[in-house]
Description:
heterodimer, A: alpha/beta, Spore Coat Polysaccharide Biosynthesis Protein SpsA, Chain A, UDP N-Acetylglucosamine Acyltransferase, domain 1, nine-stranded mixed sheet, nine-stranded parallel sheet, B: Glutamine Phosphoribosylpyrophosphate, subunit 1, domain 1, Rossmann fold, seven-stranded antiparallel sheet, 35% helix, globular
Amino acid sequence: MKCVILAAGEGKRVHPLTYTRPKVMLPIANKPIIEWNLKNAINAGFKEFIFVVAYKSEMVRNYFGRGEKWGIKIEYINQGEALGTAHAVGMVEKFVGDFVVLSGDTIFGKQDIKNILDNKNCMGLVNVEVAKDYGTVEMKDKNILKIHEKMESPDTNTINAGIYHFNKKIFDYIRKTKKSIRGEYEITDSINMMFKDKKLEGIFLKEWKDVVYPWHLIDANEEILKKIDKKIKGNIEKNTTIKGDVIIGKNTTIMAGSYIEGPVVIGENCKIGPNCYIRAYTSIGNNCHVGNACEVKNSIIMDGTNIPHQNYVGDSVLGQNCNLGAGSKVANLRLDKKNITVVLNGEKVDTKRRKLGVIMGDNVQTGINSMMNVGTTIGNNVFIGPGAFATGEIKPDTIIR
Amino acid sequence: MCGIIGYIGYRDAKQVGIDCLKRLEYRGYDSAGISVLDKIQQVYKEVGEIKELEKNLPDIKGNISINHSRWATHGKVTKENAHPHLSTNKKIAIVHNGIIENFRKLKEELITKGYKFTSQTDSEVIAHLIEDNYKGDLEKAVYSALKKIEGYYAILVTSSDEPDKIVGARKDSPLVIGVGDNENFLASDIPAFLKYTNRVIYLNDGEICSISSKDVKIYDSNNNVVERHEDIIKWDFKDAEKSGFAHFMLKEIFDQKDTVTYVIRGRISEIDRKIEFHENVENLLKSELDLINIVACGTSYYAGLVGKYFIEKLTDIPVVVELASEYRYFGPKKENSLVILITQSGETLDTLAALKEAKASGCKTLVITNVIGSSATRLSDSYILTQSGPEIGVAATKTFTAQVITLFLIALKIGLNRNKIGLDEVSKNILELKELPKIVRDVLEKSNDILEIAKQLKNAKSVFFIGRGINYPLALEGALKLKEISYIHAEGFAAGELKHGPFALLTETTPVVAIATKDSTYDKILANIGEVKARGSKVLAIADEADTEIEKHADLVLRYPSNSDLLSCIPIIVILQLLAYHVANLNGCSIDKPRNLAKSVTVE
């Protein structure tokens, strides 16, 4: 059976990180989200995959190739336009029989994928605390009666998790699906039509982590890092402290005076230290540098980024190939301890977090002693001048003086 | 500029075909058609917009289609003349962008062999010719058929005998392969399929390719297999129409290497030494004429001034060029006169008003425009299209050169009609026209040199442009380009007029651009340059490549490749356009949408 992974979306709500990559290629614990799904699906027994791609599809293709590295087979389908989930699933009609399809930007667990694989005609469900941002489901016994669109005050906490086991019948209903109010062809509309003739069983998932906004990457990163085991391939100098589960990639050097509190993952070819403090739930990509008198906490640092001299980075996501000037610091807590709001694509969003630093796109440079306020989003190729104060939403290619 | 698209894969080929056609709409269209292959060739055509075709399409199934949007050059705009065309046995379908020069001879031969033609197009011969050469291998049949064809083409061919492939070929017309997964594309331009894939393989002139849903094969002109790598298109979907250029204006300046060919396509015949227009136009140009009025606004008016020079040089008819807003009220409207109205959009209000006035007075009216179906084409006795594709930048560039070339063709045609020029002269001019793409390309390659000179002009408060003869309207147009996009005050003057007033404005900080071609007034323009230099102004000369004298007189020199006296105006204007563009860009101006200006001026 083939596993179809939907990987076409741009992820506008994950700007500025998705200006330069598709949403499924956002890294969590140094692997793209979609790779976690791929690995879990392989472990659940899948050998053949179809990736439905579109936005910056070459990045997915360049990373995964035909799947040789994972010993499986990957085919690609270009969705063309993002016309909705029903449209995306409809793309694969000619290439599947019974199949499992899942959203590539949500992380599903291995056992859950296996349960979906083992049950014909089913879909994954999950209970959440606040259901109003999701499609909730109405059930009778094990079967689903209806999937509701986002409602203001749903009377259930059970939501559609975004993983399904279909047979070819679904394509009949996809063809009949009309555009929704959002202007997209939604797979939930197709499924609701199908319920008249055919039932889907609801399967509750144990592991489920979706990424809607960029700060959800920090949560997902924490979840995954909780499960890692210690594995050190790099060179560790004398007088370093490494506590807990820490992964250190090959050719990475941890220099004297570095203090690392796991769980932490550090990629290959990095230079860490001397005299730095890396705290729990931090992922540092390949070819990075964390230098003297720097502290990094609960953050994702992507490949090629330098935090070299007297910096503080907490509860943040830093894109690829960024460089912080000496003394550049990130604020991550409001003095009044209130929730931090972020301006995203011009709209204010309550992050529900008391601690959040910055969300920084690729190729950002900061000058010495520059400051970044809590919840600042910084577009790619931004230049923050010496001593400047960055706050709010900073569009790509701008200069802050 | 017709557009062609081929699709083979797993999607609904009808849907993809229509979708891609819409993305080539910018190339212009008067009719469109599609053939979806599913056991048989299911062909549907419609006159008008692609929307019309889409609306009238039944639910045809199939995963292979060839599609075409037509901008007529041969034959009227009718359903029959729209592509795709079928072979006599209805198995082979073709779409074609280009012109088959020897189609009359081929058509006669094929008719003798019993092939049945249903349209007046040159393209249809390709379908029958492929059938005639078909011996069970479509690639080979296309290869043999193309050996017999003279002209230029990009074609796509499908056959119900081999329903798993599309064969494509190109010579002097564009065709590019879009490489997908389990699907492949062929199209005139990348934006057609960019939504579905950004992996492309460029096809070279003379090559034939065959695509199936799984692979792509390319053969050179000797039928040997060619290996070619894929390129990834980096521009964003939304920038597709700019083809990666920073501004539409710059793209359109660069388009001129092609548009100078598009405008003469189907209109010149090197072998017969003929200039051909649509029958209605030919009748107008043949008629009794005492006077030609050229009426236009803005850049089109300056094209008209260049046209006056051509027509008076090559014919015996006097030409009066008038601004539309003046002519409509005050201009002479005599019965035995031809009024040529020039408007890029075909909707310029002043020009339309002048057109109505001229018609009401019994003048013959001929419109030169870039937009088929525009008001001007409907109101006039006849019209000639500049075939340049849409021009988005407010400052006209490629349509100016196309208008100038159209006027040149008109001058040649009238000159021939009235025996004022001989076939040899026509032949020489046709060869010179055919060299224009190369000459324009040479100028475009110097864009960076022009940028360096633009750096020296960018802080000027005021710039003067001077020229004599045909170069006078070029000076006016050069000044207009600079002022409208860079907001620098610029004026064009007839070089001899400087001393009658404008000298008073010259200072050390007023650069002067002097167009110095090696014609009968060359010495005079050198003298004018001397006068200007005496006032301490810096002189930028635009001069012939072979000119070794000019350095002694001017401070800066930009050169154009020499070609002919009359057509040197084309490379010169491209230099002036690039100069204006770079100055404006250095000053950070809103180049595609200058302040206070609109592309199509539909108010008085």
